[in-house]
Design goal:
The complex is a heterodimer of chains A (111) and B (114). Helices cover 0% and strands 58% of the residues of chain A. Chain A is mainly beta and 111 residues long. In chain A, strands 2, 4, 5, 9, 10 and 11 form a 6-stranded mixed beta sheet that branches. A 5-stranded antiparallel beta sheet of chain A has the order 1-3-8-7-6, with no helix packed on it. Chain B is built from no helices and 11 strands. In chain B, strands 2, 4, 5, 6, 9, 10 and 11 form a 7-stranded mixed beta sheet that branches. A 4-stranded antiparallel beta sheet of chain B has the order 1-3-8-7, with no helix packed on it. The termini of chain B are far apart. Classes of the chains: A mainly beta (111), B mainly beta (114). Chains A and B meet through strand 4, strand 5, strand 9 and strand 10 of A and strand 4, strand 5, strand 9 and strand 10 of B.
Chain lengths: 111, 114
């Protein structure tokens, strides 16, 4: 049974700092992996989708990496801003298309 | 191209009533997924549907919950005889093709059971 774990559960950093969010999964037979952002009381915003054949994806200040063999993904956020404060969710696509989500990392960026 | 639409955005029901949640997928998308986010918990898969077919309902509670995606119209998640433990945010996602696997999420319906 696939399980997705995100560490840390919460993170508080000063503005401008570079940071890394971690995601691990127990079954390496995944199709794709996706990072989302969720603001309080809101829906999910897709940040990056990494296909199983890829090692990383970049979008602006965000970079996500994927190492299937070790069951890990990281989301790197450069030069963090207060507007980056949100919960970040990692999810893996298993066979059949359903997403398995981690519990999320709650990020707070202090001005 | 409008995104995934869900309505209502907020729904309040008393215990024992029925709740109907609607999801209109993105144009051209024929795959719909429902997820539930209980308070202080992560998002959990409930059901995966294609037009007129339930593909995977392994995450659905065995009783009181049902889902459909008719040939015409939105997908419906129906909860009969709601209880307080059903209070949660229910998210719908759609995708155009299983092989592409990227799902696009709606804004969610927040159900409160009094």
């Amino acid at each position: 049974k696939q399980e997705v774990t995100q560490i840390p559960a919460a993170l508080s950093v000063p503005e401008g700092e570079n940071l890394v969010l971690n995601c691990s999964f127990t079954d390496s037979a995944i199709y794709n992996l996706q990072w989302f952002r969720q603001d309080p009381g809101k829906g999910l915003t897709s940040l990056l989708l990494i296909q199983s054949s890829q090692r990383e994806q970049t979008s602006g200040r965000l970079n996500a990496s994927l190492d299937k063999s070790s069951g890990r993904s990281t989301l790197y956020i450069a030069a963090s801003q207060p507007g980056d404060s949100a919960t970040y969710l990692c999810a893996v696509y298993n066979q059949g298309g359903k997403l398995i989500f981690g519990q999320g990392t709650e990020l707070s960026v202090k001005p | 191209n409008a995104g995934v639409m869900q309505n209502p955005r907020h729904l309040v029901r008393r215990r024992g009533q029925e709740a109907r949640l609607r999801c209109s997928p993105m144009k051209g998308h024929s795959h719909v997924y429902w997820y539930r986010q209980l308070p202080e918990e992560g998002l959990k898969f409930m059901v995966y549907l294609q037009k007129e077919n339930i593909i995977d309902e392994s995450g659905m509670p065995k009783e009181r919950f049902s889902a459909e995606f008719p040939k015409e119209g939105p997908s419906i998640l129906r909860i009969q005889q709601v209880v307080r433990g059903d209070s949660a945010a229910y998210f719908c996602a759609s995708s155009p093709d299983l092989s592409l696997n990227e799902q696009f999420f709606g804004p969610g319906t927040r159900l409160t059971v009094l």
